[in-house]
Amino acid sequence: xxxxxxxxxxxxxxxxxxxxxxxxxxxxxxxxxxxxxxxxxxxxxxxxxxxxxxxxxxxxxxxxxxxxxxxxxxxxxxxxxxxxxxxxxxxxxxxxxxxxxxxxxxxxxxxxxxxxxxxxxxxxxxxxxxxxxxxxxxxxxxxxxxxxxxxxxxxxxxxxxxxxxxxxxxxxxxxx
Length: 176
Fold this sequence. Notes:
Elements: H1 2-20, E1 36-40, H2 59-65, E2 77-84, E3 87-90, E4 95-96, E5 103-104, E6 107-115, E7 119-122, E8 134-137, E9 139-144, E10 147-149, E11 156-159, E12 168-173
């Protein structure tokens, strides 16, 4: 019986030691939370509000529908999401978020883009798109589940406050 109690005590100490040797995970809570979403559809209407049932058609309108951050709150940053419904988004010159649609004084509009289902952006084998297919500015953004094809330019161009050639906390992944 003494050996059994000793064994239980040793096992209990190992469990306690294991608990305290695990590194504390870093959990982001709310600082980069998506606060607004706009839906796009290749057959949508730019007069629509950008909801799931009434999506917009063009990227420029989707960007306009998302708000800038508020000065003094969260560093002036807002984090929006454009969800592209399934389909091929035919473009001659790509989807662009230029600096003036990302920064307005001391407030920012950081936009992530995600495809729902099979989503492609680009030209056709007969008519390539010119320029970049997807250009985003900002930090703590993501691009997910989108296929870019048939372009004479760079597929994705990402930029931040520093310059077009640096990127901060950006995630690109695919479910395809």
